[in-house]
Design goal:
CATH architecture of the largest domain: 3-Layer(aba) Sandwich
Shape: elongated
Mean pLDDT: 95
CATH superfamily of the largest domain: MoaB/Mog-like domain
CATH topology of the largest domain: Molybdenum Cofactor Biosythetic Enzyme, Chain A
Radius of gyration: 31 Å
Structural class: alpha/beta
Strand content: 25-35%
Helix content: 10-25%
Number of domains: 4
Number of strands: 29
Largest sheet: 6 strands, mixed
Bound molecules: adenosine monophosphate, magnesium ion
Length: about 425
């Protein structure tokens, strides 16, 4: 492979995204669409509410009859019908009349206002109205939520519970969503054993396959976990060939410049078009990105933290694009925060420091983990953010820095205080 200049993370990400296609649609049942991206526009099938109905338990009245009603001057009305929710009113309300109505029940002809039960008292043969609001009060109008035939959700929208509520209301029991990419994951290394095996001297447990699979699930892909592969050219080739049956292939290890780093060689032999193999970042400098027969292949570094970092910076955006997410959702959200401990980058590559982000008294604060070695797996615990430090950037306590947000963060100070008795 030719030596090439090291790309910036942005350049590398742009190249990756240029080689990723949005996958086709599939139909899924409504609940399965949670977290997926709609591949179709959705129209409201009919008006919602389907007709005028009551927002309160009370009485459907003619406003003109009761406009003057007061506590000390109640207006008595004859009650002609009881209308529970779901029942079709049988009688029109005439002058001097009312119908008892429940929340959600259709408003009967003739009535134009609802008097809530709290503003009434029973009277002989009927009801006494003690107060009334404006004409039309407490009536939910037909179509005021959604109009039949109108577009209600656009393709490209991620389906959360709110979208599902609307889809259910418009009777979409199946919807068309973008397919989730299948991502094959393999780890290479003679020193690796599977989780359930006992490591012999010199061996370590393969934690990357599981971590990368979990990241796939968390970010919208379907992982396909392949067995651990030794540092053997033929074995690597066989497993990579299997991986290339997925939408993306992701490997960890074997992409540095060590004696036993065969992944690049095997990819070359398979006719890979190598697009780049190094990125100016720390952790995660060695990163092979190529396509083999059109399938994007990511050769991540083996160091556990480096592989996770490279996944989030490069594989995640590819997954998000393929799964149909809008462009703004391809990238990790960014914010500015003040650092809680000094940090600096004396190298010539951008650094991403695992850190804990919190929000206190109107601003974000971020504390980088004390140990940033790319083998310190435990530094990922509580790492809900990465501090982004450019070459030669240093930050003193309280200085603003850019952070990427990767998890939920705690609220302290006034917001936490408000919620403390929940
Ligand atoms: P490599 O990129 O293959 O040179 O590996 C770099 C470092 O990461 C070595 O210390 C490996 O032992 C370690 N490593 C590689 N693959 C894994 C894995 N799947 N799980 C945990 N550690 C790994
Ligand atoms: Mg290795």
């Amino acid at each position: 492979m030719p030596r090439d200049p090291m790309l910036t993370p942005e350049e590398a990400r742009a190249i990756v995204l240029n080689h990723v296609q949005v996958l086709g649609p599939e139909r899924v049942s409504l609940l399965e669409a949670t977290g997926r991206v709609l591949a179709q526009d959705v129209l409201a099938r009919r008006d919602n509410p389907p007709g005028d109905n009551s927002a309160m338990d009370g009485y459907a009245v003619r406003h003109a009859d009761v406009a003057a009603a007061r506590d000390d001057a109640p207006v008595a009305l004859e009650v002609i019908e009881d209308i529970p929710a779901g029942k079709v009113p049988q009688k029109a309300v005439g002058p001097g009349q009312a119908s008892r109505i429940m929340t959600g029940a259709a408003v009967p002809a003739g009535a134009d206002t609802i008097a809530p039960v709290e503003d009434t008292r029973p009277a002989e043969q009927g009801v006494a109205i003690l107060a009334i609001e404006e004409c039309g009060a407490h009536i939910r109008r037909r179509g005021e939520d959604m109009r039949g035939g109108e577009p209600i959700i656009k393709a490209g929208t991620e389906c959360g519970p709110g979208e599902l509520a609307v889809l259910a209301a418009v009777q979409q029991s199946f919807v068309s969503v973008y397919r989730r990419p299948r991502v094959a994951i393999l780890s290479t290394g003679d020193e690796l054993v599977e989780i359930e095996e006992t490591p012999a001297e010199g061996q370590i447990v393969n934690s990357n396959t599981c971590a990368l699979a979990a990241f796939c699930r968390a970010h919208g892909a379907e992982p396909v976990m392949l067995p651990t592969v030794p540092d053997d050219e033929a074995a690597i080739r066989t497993t990579i060939e299997a991986a290339l049956r997925a939408d993306f292939a992701v490997s960890s290890g074997g992409v540095s410049v060590g004696e036993y780093d065969f992944v690049k060689q095997v990819l070359d032999d398979l006719g890979a078009e190598t697009i780049f193999w190094r990125v100016a970042m720390k952790p995660g400098k060695p990163l092979v990105f190529c396509t083999v027969g059109g399938v994007p292949y990511f050769g991540l570094p083996g160091n556990p933290v480096s592989s996770m970092m490279s996944f989030l910076q490069f594989v995640r955006p590819a997954i998000r694009k393929a799964a149909g997410y809008p462009q703004a959702a391809w990238f990790l959200p960014e914010a500015h925060a003040r650092v809680e401990s000094p940090c600096d980058n004396d190298g010539d590559r951008r650094q991403y420091l695992r850190a804990t982000l919190r929000y206190q008294d109107g601003q974000f604060w971020v504390r980088p983990a004390r140990r940033q070695g790319s083998h310190i797996i435990s530094s990922m615990l509580n790492a809900n953010s990465f501090v982004v430090l450019e070459p030669r950037q240093c930050a003193e306590i309280g200085d603003p820095v850019l952070v990427q947000v990767v998890g939920e963060f705690a609220l302290s100070g006034e917001i936490a205080a408000k919620n403390s008795d929940l």
